[in-house]
Amino acid sequence: MVREEIQPWIEAVCHTEDLDIPDMIFGRKRPKSLGVSYVEDHAMCLFGREIRQSTVLHELAHLSVKAENHGVLFRDELVRLTRAHLSVDYAALLHSLFVGCNLEAAPWGASARQY
Question: How confident is the model over 24-49, as a mean pLDDT?
Fold first, then answer.
């Protein structure tokens, strides 16, 4: 996605997830999509000519669980956000990679939105 598309998409995801919309900083254009979260400031910086939705969800997962690390809370939130806003197949791949690398993760079914 290009910069003009990304802000409304982030706002829509945050609205759906009942998350505060983070302060956004867009860095210089880079060949690859890259993001950085500032948990204490509830902000994220995104770089890239085109920013991948997976990069944005990665940074939103950090902000959502208020974790700078990639621990189990982050991993579970990333899988859940990916499943809800990107692709079930991609979320399943992430989950299987975490489990396959012996990283703790909630059961696959826990990533589905509970109503």
Answer: 90
